[in-house]
Amino acid sequence: MNAIQPPEPGQVSLEVLATATSVRPGARFAVTVRLTNRLGSVLASLAPHPVNLSYHWVERASGEVVVFDGLRTRLPRPISPGEAVNVVLEVEAPPASRDLRLVLSAVQEGIAWWDRGAAIDVVDFKPRGVALQSDLSRVQ
Description:
Immunoglobulin-like, elongated, three-stranded antiparallel sheet, mainly beta, eight-stranded antiparallel sheet, single chain
């Protein structure tokens, strides 16, 4: 896929539809999102600059980025302008139990992360015993 200008606000959106309610540090889990493409270009996970979905883990209190480069999830197929598709992301929790925010993003590999121009959703995870509990109030 050729390089695309990073999106303006609202041109690409990620909305969390479902996620785990409890996650152990270091565990992998699924987050289902709805990706909406309002760009004038097709989005695809094709070379030389594929568009993938990923995430950052950010400490809520300090804003410190705990994990910048999350696992990548390929788009299931090319997404045309005006189209929306549900995608299941694989996410890995950080190894330590902290008060964290999961920030979802699209990324065009070798070009740019789209977490600034895109409308993105976040999920807060708070330590509860040996697990992280998600705050689903944003996604209900």
